[in-house]
Design a protein that fits this description.
The chain is α+β, with helices and mostly antiparallel strands. It has a domain of 105 residues: Cytidine Deaminase, domain 2. The chain has three helices and six strands. Strand 4, helix 3 and strand 5 form a beta-alpha-beta unit. The chain is globular, with a radius of gyration of 16 Å. It starts with 10 loop residues before the first strand and ends in a 17-residue tail after the last strand. The structure holds zinc ion. Zinc ion binds next to helix 3.
Length: 161
């Protein structure tokens, strides 16, 4: 038997002013995108913003549906928008933030498992790591250098070759 420890590097910042200017700007874009959320059922708004390697910045928000399984996550809305408007262009970074109409969220909310899988696929597709910036409505900010760090031992296309 062998035990293997998996390591991820998570950077924790106490305030937005500690971030680099590009990261702070992208987080602001994600917060602005909260206004695009359609979340009448959960009252849980999610905003995401991506910066592409060509410098373009795009954002999106979660879109709910009365048929719950049809709800779209902000991350996937934004990544699909980027792939549609800038096909073949790698994503450099993604900022994700949340706001609830029911309570103040003071911790970063990580992407759901499905979004982690899509982020991993996007990194693999472009052979380019995606920096992740996470913050709740207030509180600390987490950053990771690779979205894949959120999903160790992930399934990828190499299994299908
Ligand atoms: Zn999701």
């Amino acid at each position: 038997m062998t035990e293997k420890l998996l390591h991820i590097a998570l950077r924790i910042y106490d305030a937005q002013k500690e971030l680099s200017a590009p990261d702070a700007e992208l987080l602001q874009e994600a917060k602005a995108a909260l206004s695009k959320s359609y979340s009448p059922y959960s009252k849980f708004e999610v905003g995401a913003a991506v910066r592409l390697v060509n410098g373009a910045v795009l954002s999106g928000a979660n879109q709910e549906n009365a048929a719950y399984p049809m709800c779209l996550c902000a991350e996937q809305v934004t990544l699909a928008t980027a792939a549609s408007l800038h096909p073949g262009v790698a994503i450099e970074s993604i900022a994700i933030t949340v706001r609830s109409q029911l309570k103040t969220i003071t911790e970063p909310a990580s992407p759901c498992g499905a979004c982690r899988q899509v982020l991993c696929e996007t990194e693999s597709r472009h052979q380019h790591s995606i920096r992740v910036i996470l913050q709740g409505e207030t509180g600390q900010i987490f950053t990771l250098e690779r979205a894949g760090d959120l999903m160790p031992l992930s399934f990828d296309g190499s299994f299908l070759e």
